[in-house]
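New to this. Please check this record:
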Amino acid sequence: MNPRASVVALVARRLALGLVLLLGVSMLIFAGTQLLPGDPAQAILGQSATPEALANLRKELGLNEPTSVRYTRWLSHAVVGDFGKALSNGQDISSALGKRLRNTLFLAGCAAMVAVPLAVFLGLVAARFRNTWVDKTLSTIGLATTALPEFFVAYVLVFLLAVKLQWFSSMSSIFEGMTFSERLDAIALPIIALTLAVMAHMMRMTRAAILNVMQSAYIETALLKGLSEFQIVVRHALPNALAPIVNVVLLNLAYLVVGVIVIEVIFVYPGMGQYLVDHVAKRDVPVVQACGLVFASIYIGLNIVADIVGIVANPRLRHPK
């Protein structure tokens, strides 16, 4: 088979698998929201609602219809970006979700711009000084930040940097009209917390990829030519180790977007995570379904991109045995 055709076939297979997976996730999201305790009609009208009013609202919301019918109607509207209206306030979910999604992507993007270069640099340093105190110190710090839960790290940052030192605000409120620098100042603590959450994994994978390439024969040739180890790492090892590094970076970007829920709640950041948690408390099922589907789409999409990058960059994945 033509190599180019083989790559296209593998990419198409990954895309088809991603769509099937997203369909399965949408079923789980819809089924899970139907199993939530309580009655949506009762939550909207309150405890004093009459049985007639509850029955009329259930009919209006389509709660009396079969689950398969409601799922098909919800999915057909969601595909075109129509998530309906929130039960709690009657607002259009798509419009509110769009604003919150932009805020979440802004936070995740800023965290990625800090975490990715820093992680790759520290991974190169760890590989350059492997098995020395520098490597062991970076590994220890990385394992410690990975082992600690995000909420614990976030609260420690708030206590140290916001309460004690008063360098940053403990609440990350942003609104229309703020300048870019004001927005960055407002989200400084969430960026630090997210960076600590994902940096260690990318750093360790960068180190492992560089050390794996350093065992190749052409590296020994470069050493015999008299090149310094730093030149070898930067000029020869890093370009050939980019495939696994890019793959792990994309996977961590997916985690950044989906994993901001806890951070957004702690810092009261107006993103999708805060929006989701607020409406879970109100048992606003359409909002919960919409947020879950958007989060799943982003996560699955970035994982597909990571797979495609791996296929294109690694010939062994294009010709599996």
User: Anything to note?
Assistant: The chain has one domain: 3-36+81-318. The mean pLDDT is 79. The first helix runs from residue 3 to 34. Residues 3-36+81-318 form a domain with the MetI-like fold fold (CATH 1.10.3720.10).
